[in-house]
Amino acid sequence: xxxxxxxxxxxxxxxxxxxxxxxxxxxxxxxxxxxxxxxxxxxxxxxxxxxxxxxxxxxxxxxxxxxxxxxxxxxxxxxxxxxxxxxxxxxxxxxxxxxxxxxxxxxxxxxxxxxxxxxxxxxxxxxxxxxxxxxxxxxxxxxxxxxxxxxxx
Length: 153
Prior knowledge:
This protein is an alpha+beta fold. It contains five helices and six strands.
C-alpha cells in the first residue's frame, strides 16, 4: 500500500524525488511543481494558466501536460479523471480521501484516518484471483449545499 499522508513535497524533496527517478530538476519541472503546490489538484490547462501569470520560465501547455504525465507515471503525482473526462493531477500521492464536487468538477482532500485504517484492515491479506492489491482510492461525490453569492455589478 502507498505511504499514508506523506504531505506535499517541498522543492528540495521534489528535486530529490526527481534525482532518485533519474530526472533533472529543470526550471520547467520546478515551476510546474510550484504551481501544483499552490493548486493541489489541477488539470494541465489550469497549471499552464497559473504559470502564465507568474514570473519564471515560460512553459507551454503541451509541456505542462507532458511534465505532469511523466510525474504521474513515476508516482510522484496522482492522476484522477473528472466526470467530464478531464485529467486532473494530484500533488499528494499518499492514501487519502477526496470530495469531488460534481457541479464545479473540483477536488478537495478529506482526512479520515479511521476510514483509511478500516479499509487497510479490511483488505489486508485478501486475495483477488489474478490481481495484487496495490492500494485504494476513495472519492466521495458531493455538491455544494449553498448557492454561490451573487456578484453585484
